[in-house]
Amino acid sequence: MEITSEEIYHQIEKAKKGKQEAFKFLLDFYWNEVFGFQLKRVRNEYEAEDITIETFAKAFDKIETFDENYTFSTWLVTISKNIQIDKTRKKNASIYSNTTDTSNEQVQKIPDHSPTPEDKLIKEQNLAELLRYIKQLKPHYQEVINLRFFHEMSYNEISETLEEPLNNVKVRLLRARKLLAEIIIKKE
Length: 188
Prior knowledge:
Layout: H1 5-16, H2 20-42, H3 45-61, H4 72-99, H5 104-107, H6 117-124, H7 127-134, H8 139-150, H9 155-162, H10 166-187
Helix pairs in contact: 1-2, 2-3, 2-4, 3-4, 3-10, 8-10, 9-10
């Protein structure tokens, strides 16, 4: 079955209203396009996956700002490209700071990974019901959801707490969100 542009815009509108199945649809539909774009740019599968995860997280956090006069895939690729450029600048700045006497504050502009308004809203909405859904997840998924949304830890803090690479934390959290969304959809 071919998916029409009308169906895509319908899903975007549902996502703007916070419908989890719409986010899942958009993630599934556009994942390969964004991942493939990044894989060509960075030529590293893990880095491309990391950037792709960040792209969807940022896009979904800011979905209400999407302008329907543009195509959604172009918007996603633009976000993805900007994240990749920021990461490259940060990496280059880190290299530069190790070879100069310039202070780290001036050289490194690290993006804020603290919880977003969406994260805070999830925490406030029907907490008891959400906890019942979370308990249906496997323990390692429950753990990252708990750290991210209830302890309001950044990705870096979760990585340090679990003593796992940042990329693993991001992938596990994305997977946990996806599984949680599937549980919620089944219950609705």
